[in-house]
Amino acid sequence: MSTRGSWRVLGMMSGSSLDGLDLCLATFAETETGWTYTLESSETVVYPVFLQQQLATAHQLSGLGLMQLDAALGQFFSAAAAGFLRGKLAPVLVSTHGHTIFHRPEGGFTTQIGGAPQMAARLKLPVAYDFRSADVGLGGQGAPLVPVGDALLFSEYAACLNLGGIANISFQYQKKRIAYDLACCNMVLNTASEQLGHAYDAGGELARVGQINYELLEQLSSIPFYKLAAPRSLGREHFEAALKPLLFSGQYQPQDILATWCVHLGAILSQELQKHQVTGDLLITGGGAYNTFLMEKLKNQSINRFILPESQLIEQKEALIFGFLGLLRYLRRPNVLSEVTGGSSSHCAGALIELF
After folding, report:
1. Nearest to 196 by CA among 141, 142, 258, 134
2. CATH code of the region 159-303
3. For residue 166, which of 49, 286, 271, 254 has the smallest C-alpha distance?
4. Do 58 and 111 form a contact (C-beta atoms < 8 A)?
5. Residue 3 — very low, low, confident or very high, per pLDDT cuts 50/70/90?
6. Structural domain boundaries of the chain?
7. Alpha helix locations (H) across 156-196?
């Protein structure tokens, strides 16, 4: 197998579930038969409580407050990356997703913060960031972006399902890559768990003692978002505006919300797999993969085989792929697919800071 080139990249991902900052150091190699990766090391750095709280309410900040948070997050990202890279072979670049505060493609904007210029100055490495804005400018959703990595790095699977703050799926359909957000996932489950004094529902044990509320289940199935055709994407705004008032008004017990939402996710996934005739193996990643109750409810409503990889890939696949997206930007290759996002053209997205 002839190698055309190989590059070591640090990928960084901060997701909507606010679990922490994922860092993934990997080497990507381009060969005559395609791309391969070697995941060298990874780590999740938990947010300090004050920073986690600020990020959870950042959409309510003033312009000045948001810029101050951007600077604080840049300092945190820089320190986390510097500590993680200490003693390791340096990457050719750092690729950061940043943390999404606003995602409103219908309004023509999407906002990720995280102090990328500070990172470039502190780390003395090129930094790729802001992968969504150009696609929104081209009329697309600016999401999802991970499917490029799914297509080039994980093509042996019929579909890739990520169970993070938001559940999203990616697969080939009629010779095109199709990908979109399915529904909120850990964003709902973690909120309900917090009402029971837990940061998250470890193993799904809280959901297991809950009762499925079939009346609520019926209400959930009629949420307008599920009627939208792909491409479609979700942000925290949907959770705050549509789901919080319905689920967390005090009408339902938290453990019942957990149980009902897991069944609801199973129904949504099953519906989408059947609609697009997706058969074969599903690669499952994201924190929700560890929720045994959720996994049972997903499997119960699907005929597909669920594949859970090693824990490192479960936890770091998005950071790995954002590293890959940054590499494609560095190499001036297309890294956003118009067929996935709905933009007017596929393109090479992301800003690149090279100070040294």
Report:
1. 258
2. 3.30.420.40
3. 286
4. no
5. low
6. 3-142+316-353, 159-303
7. 186-194
